[in-house]
Design a protein that fits this description.
The chain has 249 residues and is an alpha/beta fold. It is built from 7 helices and 7 strands; from the N terminus they run E-H-E-E-H-E-H-E-H-E-H-H-H-E.
Length: 249
């Protein structure tokens, strides 16, 4: 269906130098979109349209959006994917770690979306925003208070922005990945006994840990005209992890 094509579109994907973000950017490209990638490195091999920007800086989101539009003036799609995990046990949590989590995971997403939306509104163009949250935005996890809180905030940010930007023709949706193997999570998985992965694979209905490409398909759909009547929604991508109450024994 042509409705799933992104031919003629241009996209900016934050946090797209590796992992889920890179897969999302590649997926958008495969659907026909021109893509501006983003990360903290000076450059990433194989990524021609790439912007280095530190979203932890107050002016980082605006600088990123300005640079991305300089490369691709027709950008009409934004994927706010940048984020990370800085938690320790809650009794050991520091204000520095807490603020770092909220600054990167929540504030940078909002202010990048704001800068992007301002550009579209000024040019009287519609567009699409997709925000990467997590199943942690719905369910708590051990020693993840700051991360869980930030991902829950992104769920409501998605809905609130959808309400506020609808009259400007800008759709806002989100995805909530479950357990996905990325460079970040691989360290966690590989540092534990195999029984930990066995436990998750029994709990996940589809019997496997997800891959970044599993997230890319849903994001590409939400950015396409096939989803033109969808806004304010969160698609959970977890292989059924949060569907079953107990899982296999």
């Amino acid at each position: 269906m042509k409705a799933f094509s992104l031919d003629g579109h241009a996209s900016l994907v934050t946090g797209s130098s590796q992992g889920i973000g890179l897969a999302i950017g590649r997926g958008l490209q495969e659907a026909g979109s021109r893509v501006v990638f983003h990360g903290l490195q000076d450059a990433v091999e194989g990524l021609a349209s790439y912007v280095k920007a530190d979203l932890m800086q107050d002016d980082g989101p605006q600088k990123l959006v300005d640079s991305a539009f300089a490369l691709e003036p027709g950008i009409d799609t934004l994927v706010c994917n940048a984020g990370s995990f800085f938690d320790v046990h809650p009794l050991e949590m520091t204000r520095e770690r807490w603020d770092k989590t909220m600054q990167l995971n929540v504030a940078s997403a909002f202010f990048t979306a704001q800068a992007f939306a301002k550009c579209l509104v000024a040019e009287k163009r519609g567009g699409s925003i997709v925000i990467t949250s997590s199943t942690n935005g719905f369910q708590g996890e051990m020693d993840s208070c700051a991360y869980d809180a930030s991902k829950g905030a992104l769920v409501m940010l998605t809905k609130s922005l959808a309400v506020s930007l609808a009259d400007h023709g800008i759709r806002v949706n989100g995805v909530a990945p479950g357990l996905i193997k990325t460079p970040l999570t691989a360290q966690w998985m590989e540092s534990r006994d195999r029984s930990v992965l066995d436990h998750y694979e029994k709990k996940i209905l589809l019997r496997r840990v997800g891959a970044p490409e599993d997230v890319a398909g849903a994001v590409t759909f939400l950015c396409s005209t096939a989803a033109s009547y969808i806004t304010g929604e969160i698609i959970v991508i977890d292989g059924g992890l949060t569907t079953g109450q107990i899982g296999r024994m």
